[in-house]
Amino acid sequence: xxxxxxxxxxxxxxxxxxxxxxxxxxxxxxxxxxxxxxxxxxxxxxxxxxxxxxxxxxxxxxxxxxxxxxxxxxxxxxxxxxxxxxxxxxxxxxxxxxxxxxxxxxxxxxxxxxxxxxxx
Length: 120
What we know:
Layout: E1 3-5, E2 8-10, E3 21-26, E4 30-31, E5 35-42, E6 50-58, E7 70-71, E8 75-78, E9 84-91, E10 101-108, E11 110-119
Parallel strand pairs: 4-11
Antiparallel strand pairs: 1-2, 3-5, 5-9, 6-8, 6-10, 7-9, 10-11
């Protein structure tokens, strides 16, 4: 029996078929202006793709120092049968005296956060 979710119709999904986020890793430190990678992991492989939402924000947004820039895709998909996926993190040049940390957050049933550190 289909179930209505928003404007989409989807079959019921068994709890065992939901990919639960286990952790996120980032290759850090990175020199500002360069690209690095991150990886997201789910606890176990499932038979359908798992979408993981991503976001990046300065670790200390209230700082008077210039803020570093990190751009992540809004979402990464872990393919069916897999337990992880990689994504690129594009960074902007680091200003002198800038805060050196960015938080990379993920969400898929649970939320995880990793810290991306910049080098001068």
